[in-house]
Design the sequence.
């Protein structure tokens, strides 16, 4: 979200001053061969534009660059075309790349099952397995999460019980923001601390182990 309050420009919860724009313009002029993605990576690093978990806010930076160009403030390098598979991200992600095993039904109380824990997934194989299982067993199938995300496997003893996929909160939901009492500026500042369950497949019985774990493991698409 790109906003102006008459004196300053805002991209998300970051104020963009004249010095920032001048620096961006100078960087583009000095390194004209940088691709747009490389330019965004470099700016995030040099400007310290990071998520609460310390990851670069690449998407927000790319949006800022596009808006500055549209406003005549900068001129970005030409887009680089990419060949290869043109299948949509939804279709690629939904294609299972690992074997799927239904497993046995678990019928017992939580006390009988033992401690339930969430294991953060980071390896490519684990992520692909999570996507494939959600696509196969969730009524809504798998949809690529937007913004920041974290995948967990729900485990107890030596059993895998399911998967949990969290992603960043929606930018603006009027009933939510009105109930919390956020101003527009407070909403932009606090949104990184709000998460969504995506898709909506988390039973309330698994909500408790999830508390306090979202401050680590966030990734960016």
Sequence:
């Amino acid at each position: 979200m790109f906003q102006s309050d008459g004196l300053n420009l805002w991209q998300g919860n970051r104020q963009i001053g004249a010095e920032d724009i001048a620096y961006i313009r100078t960087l583009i002029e000095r390194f004209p061969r940088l691709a747009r993605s490389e330019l965004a990576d470099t700016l995030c690093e040099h400007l310290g534009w990071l998520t609460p978990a310390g990851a670069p806010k690449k998407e927000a930076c790319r949006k800022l660059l596009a808006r500055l160009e549209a406003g005549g403030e900068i001129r970005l390098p030409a887009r680089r075309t990419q060949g290869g598979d043109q299948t949509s991200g939804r279709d690629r992600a939904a294609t299972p790349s690992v074997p799927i095993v239904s497993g046995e039904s678990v019928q017992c109380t939580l006390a009988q099952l033992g401690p339930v824990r969430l294991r953060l997934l980071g390896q490519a194989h684990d992520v692909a397995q999570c996507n494939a299982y959600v696509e196969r067993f969730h009524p809504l199938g798998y949809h690529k999460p937007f913004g920041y995300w974290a995948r967990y496997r729900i485990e107890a003893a030596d059993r895998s019980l399911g998967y949990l996929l969290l992603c960043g909160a929606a930018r603006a939901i009027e009933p939510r923001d009105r109930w919390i009492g956020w101003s527009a500026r407070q909403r932009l500042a606090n949104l990184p601390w709000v998460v969504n369950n995506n898709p909506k497949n988390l039973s309330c019985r698994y909500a408790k182990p999830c508390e306090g774990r979202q401050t680590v493991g966030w990734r960016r698409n």
